[in-house]
Amino acid sequence: MEMVEVDDRVPQYGGEQCSLEPFVEDLASWSVITFKFENPFGYEDSLVVELMRSTEWLEANHVDAGGTVRLVFEEFKVEDDGYVRSISSCPVIAQGEGCGH
What we know:
Blueprint: E1 9-10, H1 21-24, E2 30-38, E3 46-54, H2 55-60, E4 68-73, E5 78-89, E6 99-100
Antiparallel strand pairs: 1-6, 2-3, 2-5, 4-5
């Protein structure tokens, strides 16, 4: 599986262009949440996922470090409770081609 860091820029699927303009203006109110999941496919390893989310999303989903949050990743057929390992400030996303994640 490919590793993509939170502040990496990646090509948009289907060749479409994306814009970060409305998002970048409010980046200070976003955080990076690191989740850990037990492997849903029966393997002994675990999955670590980093997501960028707004302060409003954190509050609405009662996200606190050390707690758990129910997440659904339809593309991976995963629906499970993720342990919140950490919450940190959002990094600066460089300008350039592709979408920032």
